[in-house]
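Onboarding guide, step 5: your first structure request.
Type a short instruction followed by the sequence, for example:

Predict the 3D structure of this protein.
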Amino acid sequence: MKPEILVMAASPSASVMAQLEQHFVCHHVWQVPMDGRAAFIAGVAPDVRGVATTGMAGIGAGLAAQLPRLEIVAVNGIGVDAVDFDALRPRGIRVTNTPGVLTDDVADLAVALLLAVSRRVPALDGYVRAGQWQAGVPVRPTRALRGKVAGIYGFGRIGQAVASRLAAFGLQLRYWQPNVKAGVDVPRSDSLLALARESDYLVVCAPGGAATKGTVDAAVLEALGPEGTLVNIARGSLVDEPALIAALAEGRLGAAALDVFAEEPSVPAALAALPNVVLTPHVGSLTVETRHAMGQLVVDNLLAHFEGRPLPTPVA
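The system replies with structure tokens like these:
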């Protein structure tokens, strides 16, 4: 008999969805209207042995408690800050994620955001479309990237991939994270505050969770300064959003480019109204190739678990 699983969100890969249907009895929570999901889950909960979820949705203690036979939670994404490990660990429930396969696309978006905000690409697009070029409206110059310093907060796979790309643009590089990264030739700053003070661009690549919540605070933004730029492709929780809005509005921070926000998909109106920001809707990994690869890892982890094989990408 096929194992029964809860599928919390659809994969854009038709192949991934077909494989889930082939190998498991799938209860598709995402297909049920919000007001009916609690009843739907309650009806299938006694037989559910696995959950396929996303990094943003994760799984909380309440849902885990409803699933007495739960054995594995397969997260489609790197971040597991929305997974309640305190609820899962005592029951021996395994957790997997999808590292590695999305590194390049997320790093590419980080660089695209940095370029877009530094060269004011969205504003210049609007300038041309509005006929201001033809009308002879003056355009203020932007600043060159070469010779500037990019500080990278979080120097794991994605942080290092961002660094390698920015080096090609002639930027100097620094990083900070709590532990020293062995085998890299990029200098490590003494603290996050020091990194901000030493950087023209601060690129946030650190993991989410309680340990990093609000670490990019008013002091860090002040250290980055009125000519500085914040780029965040990690988690919105790392940045003190009200402090960010105030710093941008008051000119104490030069600009920001953000793919992630504190309360997604809600973006504060005050942030969206600012002219010195570039905003994208958490699409760092949203390419056809990467979303397929992520979904395939979810399938592979679920199959490995239920077939008694080692998990491809377990989370400790």
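Each response can be followed by summary notes, for example: The first helix runs from residue 14 to 23.
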